[in-house]
Inverse folding.
C-alpha cells in the first residue's frame, strides 16, 4: 500500500491492471481532486464573473494533473525519479531537442506555404499583417505554441504513452496514444465535431509523428520530450503565423480539400503529404543509434 495525497492506494495491484484501466483510474483521481475547486469557478464563469471564462478551471485541471503525475509514478511503480521517466531527460537534452525540433516544424510549414505559392495555389496577401504587428503576432504565437507544445506533449507523449507502454507493445502503445490524441481534439459540441471531422486523419498522423519524435535518442540509452515539444511548437507557430498574420491567401485554382479545408493543412491533401514525409524523416531519425 502507498500513501497518495493522504489516501492509501494498492500500488502494486494497480500496476498489474490493464493499461486502459490504469488510465481510467488515474483520470478519475485527477477529476475527483479537481472538481471541488473547478465547479465553483465554472459557476462564476457562467455568470460572467470570472475573467477568461473557462480558462481558469481548464488551467487548474492541468495543474492537478501535474501534481498527481509524479505521485502516481511513485505510488504505483515505486519510481524514485518520475520526471526523468516521463521524458525530462536533463536541461541540456531538452534544450537540444527543442532547438532541433522547433526549426524543423517551422520549416515544414514554410515548405507547405512555398509549395502553394510556387504552384499558384496561393498568393501573398498584400494587406496582411506587416511590420511591427507581424512581429507581435510572431512573439505571441511563439509563446502560445510553446505552451501548447509542452502541455500536450507532457500529457500524451509523456504520461499516456508511458502508461500504455506498461503492458502493450511499443507499436500498439503509440497507435493507441495517437488515436486518443486525435479523439481528444473532438471533445466539443456536435456541430463543432462535424466541422472538425476532416482533420481527424491529420491529427492521427500528427500523433504518430510526435510519438516517433519522442523516441529520438538524446543520449546513449535515453530519450526525452525535447524533440516532440520542439516539433509540435514549431508546427503550431508556423501555422499561427500564416493564419493570424494573413500571410497567404488561396487562389481557388485547386479545391479546398487539396490545400486544406478552412485553411487548416491537417484537413488537406497537401498537408497530409507533407506530414507523411516529415513522419518518414522522424521515424528514421528515431531508429538511429544517436
Amino acid at each position: 500500500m502507498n500513501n497518495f495525497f493522504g489516501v492509501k492506494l494498492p500500488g502494486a495491484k494497480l500496476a498489474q491492471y490493464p493499461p486502459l484501466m490504469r488510465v481510467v483510474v488515474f483520470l478519475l483521481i485527477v477529476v475527483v481532486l479537481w472538481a471541488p475547486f473547478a465547479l465553483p469557478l465554472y459557476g462564476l464563469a457562467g455568470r460572467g464573473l470570472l475573467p477568461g471564462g473557462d480558462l481558469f478551471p481548464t488551467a487548474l485541471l492541468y495543474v492537478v494533473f501535474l501534481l498527481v503525475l509524479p505521485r502516481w509514478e511513485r505510488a504505483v511503480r515505486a519510481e524514485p525519479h518520475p520526471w526523468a521517466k516521463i521524458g525530462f531527460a536533463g536541461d541540456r537534452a531538452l534544450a537540444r531537442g527543442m532547438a532541433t525540433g522547433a526549426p524543423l516544424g517551422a520549416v515544414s510549414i514554410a515548405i507547405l506555404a512555398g509549395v502553394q505559392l510556387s504552384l499558384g495555389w496561393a498568393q501573398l496577401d498584400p494587406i496582411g499583417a506587416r511590420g511591427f504587428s507581424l512581429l507581435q503576432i510572431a512573439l505571441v504565437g511563439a509563446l502560445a505554441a510553446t505552451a501548447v507544445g509542452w502541455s500536450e506533449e507532457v500529457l500524451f507523449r509523456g504520461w499516456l504513452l508511458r502508461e500504455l507502454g506498461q503492458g502493450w507493445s511499443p507499436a500498439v502503445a503509440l497507435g493507441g496514444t495517437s488515436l486518443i490524441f486525435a479523439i481528444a481534439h473532438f471533445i466539443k459540441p456536435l456541430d463543432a465535431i462535424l466541422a472538425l471531422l476532416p482533420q481527424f486523419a491529420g491529427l492521427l498522423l500528427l500523433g504518430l509523428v510526435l510519438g516517433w519524435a519522442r523516441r529520438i535518442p538524446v543520449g546513449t540509452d535515453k530519450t526525452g520530450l525535447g524533440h516532440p515539444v520542439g516539433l509540435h511548437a514549431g508546427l503550431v507557430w508556423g501555422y499561427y503565423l500564416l493564419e493570424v498574420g494573413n500571410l497567404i491567401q488561396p487562389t481557388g485554382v485547386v479545391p479546398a480539400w487539396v490545400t486544406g479545408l478552412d485553411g487548416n493543412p491537417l484537413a488537406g491533401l497537401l498537408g497530409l503529404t507533407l506530414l507523411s514525409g516529415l513522419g518518414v524523416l522522424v521515424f528514421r531519425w528515431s531508429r538511429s543509434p544517436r
In short: Residues 1-80 form one domain. Residues 131-165 form the longest helix (35 residues). The first strand starts at residue 2 and ends at 4.
